[in-house]
Design a protein that fits this description.
globular, alpha/beta, 932 residues, 7-stranded mixed beta sheet
């Protein structure tokens, strides 16, 4: 059967899971799995599978809105754009350019982020631009740049995780935040590796761990220092590595030795035996990784905290070596690319520094402006929001909802209300858009083409699959029209590929060099890892090596490149190649001999890549090593089901490859399909097929047929109280399409681009394919293997010391609040809260309390409680669980109104990254009576 699907990527998290948008016979489109994409291999979580529902005109904005008489009313595009340009121009004329603010988002494509930063600096002339990604990865980025000279979330592909010996996962509940990624950690354990999870809650991720460390919120820095102390005391440091590849060890060692185990136990609550066991597990294998997420990063000392974990990697020789290293699990869909191309307050495209004269000259040359005309660095995200209505009088906001997502949210909401003028471009009428003077309806993921950069540093191509509703335009159109009205007629094209071509030139020679990447390559190769300079010889970066020195010049202090050849030829890319055909060391070792890609033997041929390949293609698909036979999920069956892979939550909130899933949403977002409503069968938990593959609904219910495809609507599997199920309906002509959508013709197949049919899907499960590169640089999947991106090529130890959080508990506020996400909602919930199935699974906020704390307060499960901090009060029902520390309470942050968790959070900023302290603040809990 002819493939009519359009391959694209999920609009949500930084995994950027591959998916297909497939036309339905009765009209409209559905989301189906895309097994050829290596990150998710077809699996999708509930958010991804229902993503097309937000495309429905009934759930989103379809006309501009302007405020008249205190109300938002529909207006024409010319009128709305004229009003924005008029108000921005008048504000600039009266107060100066820095009275204009621009606030972007980590979900904007690279093209949009690039154009937004250019618009702020060239058209408006303002320094006051930042974005919500500051609230996500900025501490990890700052620490990585200090230590390695370069920040890229993961310096290696996710496929390396199952092959390492141990992973310490710090402050990440990826089983809920990015469910398809859990398989990499499950495969790690199946291969004999160990998983250590650091989290104050016993999350679904922690349940999978060999060792769970539950420190008091805000003490991750002390924990990392305590582990490093034990590494030194037990003689587990790699002295040769430290001597040859690092600097600054003596100072970092002295800092760690001030944090002896008993002292760390008193600070963190993690026992000395647990500390020693963690060190043993981490140091025993030859390879290991540390991965951090928002837990240690969203602190007023987040940069130092991440730095301490990096020090642990460096001291044990676990960085810049195959299957080892430090990485950050980037959160937002384009959180990586969003921080590389200019919407951050201190950056220019290519991850260049705005205060670097050479960077300014290069980018100004691409933009055709005087370097001196470019403004300098501006305020960070929270500081910009805090200045609204005073120094900053008018704001243009794209792709963010700070009324829900910002710390001290009630104060931020008040600052937004105090603006002279607010314009918002968004897909939906978010809580922030409701405050605007003008709201512009813009296109979203499936309605536009553009690139994103995943948490791996893999640049990806999203392709337009449907025509946007009438009255909806792209963000690029908005910037083009506003620039024209403000006197800049050229330089803001509306075609995303044209914007990307300019981005390539602007990034050339920078740390995040995209100059060798094209739309055609992205389509042919399933993405390309940066850095990828245009020329693969001379000063080019090495494949599996690191960033190249910009323009063949010496390295800069900011690490503007380095791991490749310098000065035009000391080491050629060919000499360093770790891809097929590239000899290393004058031919002594070929890429095949190193086995870095499929088919290549390792260790001179002793081990083939197939033998090393721990992805599907081993003993699976009915062989002795099936998921069921191996007992992959030792957690036991759930909800009374058998102990099969499906019943044990193999793919929480997600589907397995090969299962078409109809978008079951009518105009009201209700669940239809198969004429039966939602599949909420209480009779059974999901079961596994003969090959151990599973499918799942948004709440976790899983079913499978004998070939791994869905056998029909299955059971509902409770996921932390989220028990609504979705239809899993393969090949069902009665499936309901999202109405009002016009699918585009699928793109013509490109040479070498894999199909998504049954045969290709089967093959993708068995073979690791090598990207086909016809000339040019192959991209850099693995950084730092030869040298770090610092002037001397050495990693930097940074001495750090534990210090208290900005707000410690006291008699008035005796508890600690920490916040996070749930599986069926995303970020501020602006989109996911419009999907009925997701709301059924996660209908509202809650407050997790330990049973001992609940007993002391007199709270029962479901009782309304108020959580009170120095900044405000939030109300939500109590959820009693032993999975949290008795001195800590937890709230998810997806909801507005009285249950808004960020009303409570502390905007205390990290001095380096300017990251607010979302993860720890002092609170008290009050049990409310009837009517309170």
């Amino acid at each position: 059967m002819e493939n009519t699907s359009t391959p694209t990527h999920c609009p949500y998290c930084a995994l950027q899971c591959g998916m297909n948008i497939t036309p339905l016979p009765q009209g409209g489109v559905e989301v189906t799995e895309r097994p050829d994409f290596p990150v998710n291999r077809g699996a999708l979580c509930g958010k991804g599978r229902t993503a097309a529902q937000v495309l429905s005109p009934a759930l989103r904005l379809t006309a501009p809105l302007v405020r008249e008489g205190g109300r938002l009313v529909e207006a024409s595009w010319p009128r709305a754009l004229d009003l924005i340009a008029e108000r921005l121009g008048a504000t600039r004329e009266r107060y100066g350019p820095d009275a204009l603010g621009v606030f972007g988002g980590g979900g904007l494509t690279n093209e949009k982020a690039y154009a937004l930063g250019k618009f702020a600096r060239v058209v408006l002339g303002t320094s006051q631009i930042d974005y919500n990604g500051r609230f996500c990865m900025s501490s990890a980025a700052a620490a990585g740049t200090k230590a390695f000279g370069l920040d890229r979330g993961l310096p290696f592909p996710l496929e390396d995780i199952p092959k390492t010996g141990c992973v310490i996962l710090v402050g990440s509940n990826l089983a809920e935040t990015m469910p398809p990624s859990l398989r990499f950690f499950t495969e790690l354990r199946e291969n004999g590796g160990t998983l250590i999870v650091v989290d104050p809650r016993r999350t679904r991720t922690a349940e999978q761990a060999d060792l769970h460390l539950a420190p008091r919120p805000g003490t991750d820095l002390a924990l990392a220092l305590g582990l490093l102390h034990l590494v030194v005391a037990e003689g587990r440091t790699d002295e040769e590595y430290i001597r040859e590849r690092t600097t600054g060890w003596e100072e970092a060692r002295a800092a760690a030795m001030a944090h002896w185990p008993e002292h760390v136990e008193r600070i963190t609550g993690v026992s000395v035996p647990e500390l020693r066991e963690a060190v043993r597990l981490f140091c025993a294998p030859e390879t290991a990784m540390v991965l951090t997420a928002r837990g240690p990063e969203q602190q007023s000392k987040g940069t130092d905290t991440v730095g301490a974990w990096i020090n642990l990697c460096l001291a044990t020789g676990r960085a810049g070596r195959p299957l080892s290293g430090y990485g950050c699990l980037t959160g937002q869909g384009n959180g990586q690319g969003g921080r590389e191309h200019g919407q951050k307050a201190d950056q220019l495209p290519g991850y260049r520094k705005l205060d670097d004269p050479a960077a300014r000259a290069h980018v100004a040359g691409v933009w055709g402006v005087d370097p001196d005309a470019l403004p300098g660095p501006g305020r960070s995200a929270y500081e910009l929001l805090d200045a609204l209505g005073t120094d900053v009088r008018a704001l243009l906001l794209m792709g963010s909802n700070p009324v829900v997502s910002a710390p001290r949210a009630a104060h931020v909401e008040q600052r937004l209300r105090s603006l002279d003028f607010l314009a918002v471009a968004d897909v939906v009428l978010s809580e922030t858009a409701e405050l605007a003077d003008v709201v512009l309806p813009v296109t979203q993921w499936a309605e536009e083409t553009g690139t994103t950069t995943s948490l791996e540093g893999r640049v990806l191509l999203r392709r337009q699959a449907v025509t946007p509703p009438p009255g909806v335009h792209s963000d690029l159109y908005v910037l083009h029209e506003l620039a024209d009205r403000l006197g800049v007629e050229k330089g803001f094209p509306t075609d995303p590929e044209e914007v990307f071509e300019e981005l390539r030139r602007a990034s050339a020679g920078g740390p995040a060099d995209y100059s060798g990447i094209t739309y055609r390559r992205l389509a042919e190769e399933n993405g390309v890892f940066w850095p990828c300079p245009e020329d693969s010889t001379g000063a080019g970066a090495t494949a599996d090596g690191g960033a190249a020195a910009p323009d063949g010049a010496a390295d800069t202090a900011e690490g503007a490149g380095t791991a490749g050849a310098q000065d035009g030829g000391a080491r050629t890319a060919a000499a360093e190649d770790r891809f097929p055909g590239g000899a290393q060391d004058g031919g002594a070792r070929t890429a095949a001999a190193e086995g870095r890609f499929s088919g290549g033997a390792q260790d001179g041929g002793a081990r083939t890549a197939a033998a090393e390949d721990r992805f599907p293609g081993g003993a699976q698909d009915g062989g002795a090593g099936t998921a069921a036979a191996e007992g992959r999920f030792p957690g036991g069956a759930q909800d009374g089901g058998a102990g099969t892979a499906a019943a044990e939550g193999r793919f929480p909130g997600g589907t397995e490859p090969g299962t078409p899933v109809a978008v079951a949403g009518g105009p009201e977002g209700g669940s239809e399909g198969a004429g039966a409503g939602t599949a909420q069968h209480a009779s059974a938990a999901g079961t596994a097929g003969a090959d151990g593959r599973t499918t799942a609904d948004a709440g976790g219910g899983m079913t499978a047929g004998t070939d791994g495809t869905a056998a029909g609507a299955g059971g509902s599997l409770a996921v932390d109280g989220e028990d609504a199920a979705l239809d899993v309906l393969p090949d069902d002509p009665a499936s309901e399409a999202v109405p009002g959508l016009t699918p585009l013709a699928p793109p013509a197949p490109l040479p070498g681009h894999p199909t998504t049919g049954t045969e290709a899907a089967s093959e993708a499960r068995l073979v690791r394919t090598v990207p086909r590169v016809v000339g040019g640089h192959p991209g850099t999947p693995r950084l730092f293997l030869d040298r770090f991106a610092t002037p001397d090529g050495r990693a930097r130890f940074v001495p750090v010391f534990h210090r208290a959080t900005a707000e410690e508990p006291d008699s008035e506020y005796p508890l600690l609040l920490t916040t996070g996400r749930v599986v069926s909602q995303y970020q501020s919930g602006a989109q996911t809260r419009r999907v009925a199935e997701l709301n059924a699974a996660a209908p509202g906020p809650f407050v997790e309390l330990h049973p001992r704390l609940a007993a002391r307060l007199g709270a029962a499960d479901g009782d309304p409680v108020a959580v009170v901090s120095r900044r405000g009060r939030a109300v939500a029902p109590a959820r009693i669980t032993p999975a949290i520390r008795p001195d800590t309470v937890f709230m998810p942050f997806h909801w507005p109104g009285e249950g808004r968790a960020n009303t409570l959070t502390n905007p205390a900023l990290d001095p380096t990254s300017r990251m607010p302290e979302f993860k720890s603040c002092a609170v008290r809990v009050e049990v409310l009576g009837p009517g309170e």
